[in-house]
Design a protein that fits this description.
2 domains, 7-stranded mixed beta sheet, binds zinc ion, alpha+beta, 15 strands, 4-stranded antiparallel beta sheet, 5 helices, Prim-pol fold
Amino acid sequence: MIPTTCERETCGAELRRTGIGRPQRFCSARCRVAAHRARRAVPAELRGRERWVRRGDDKAPLRADTGRPASSTNPSTWTTHTAAARSSHGAGLGYVLADGDDVVVLDLDHCLTGGQLAPWAARILAACPPTFTEVSPSGTGLHIWGHGRLERGRRIRRDDGAHIEAYSSGRYIALGHRYDDAPLALADLSEVLEQLL
Ligand SMILES: [Zn+2]
């Protein structure tokens, strides 16, 4: 029998295996709720900006109030994190990268398989200072968030399998869930961007 522990990071209580039904993941309802909340957590800096939209089923951004199409270049179609989180339109949250905000996202495509990070993606993550990182809604990509500026969006493909896109404006990012115990803060990524691009 494999000993298992509660999946809430700060708990670690040992779980009893009954052998009946689905294996338990949390020691208590309290830990299940806390772990769920931690997965949905977003840095205060991003929550504090009116850059929020909803993610449509076809990945296109939607207005949180009406569910009609939103535009990544029209601020009147964006709203607060609170309003977007309360909205039931679409399938989740999206954040618009707006010019002049000094927020940049490295979008690492197809780098997660069964929870395993591809070597090229692990190298990029290791090169970044600790910063907010989340798993894309598809569960196979990683979004590394930070401070930095780009003149325009960039797309990089490398021989080692790397498929990276970098954006800092005119683009919306569909949010998935927080990666591991990634910090809820944005680090300066300008050096990484310089090396990468
Ligand atoms: Zn627990």
